[in-house]
Amino acid sequence: MPASTPPSTTVDAVPRRVPTQARSRRRVEAILDAAERLVVEHGVEALTTRDIAQAAEVPVASLYQYFADKEEVLLALAQRDMDEMDEQVARDIAALPAVTIDAVVAATMAAFVEVYRRRPAFVVIYLRGRTNAAVAAFGRVHNARTAATLREFVLDAGLCDERLTPAIAELAIELGDRVFQLAYEHRLDGDPVLVAEGVALLTAYLHRFAPGGDAG
Fold first, then answer.
1. What is the C-alpha end-to-end distance of the chain, expressed in Å?
2. Residue ranges of the DNA-binding region (predicted)?
């Protein structure tokens, strides 16, 4: 079992009116599900609030009760999928028979692949939608928080030492993020060869910061 609690990297929820009644919650979920389908079919840039409302079979005015614009819909979708991803990562790390750098990197990357398989819209929004300023900003905030959380985890577990600075941890996360961007650039199911190379790259890099590693 891990020497510390598996990491969670949830970004704060997108500001919007939070539905409290079951009917309102179902309406919001219908809006998000409709947006998810449209993103997979047409991409981020083509998405409009009118199209989302039509696909969700709700009046446009109802959509605006919960989301100010399409960016808020996109970020709510990204947040929903990121929460699922955080849960998957924590669950998979907690299930590791032995906590090593190799195992943690492999489990984390595999968890991402599993959620991308279940949530293809997340691939389109998060990995391919960076031309959207709101999505790009969301990605940077999440990467920074992921880096801080995972750094704390590997230090607490004794896998790395203080030479793994916050800046270096963030660099590692950005490298992994870029691996996924390239692996999923042309395929919704990703390129397993590129993902495997990314696992090998990040594992070797983090070993430099293990106790006795060769990082300067």
1. 30
2. 48-67
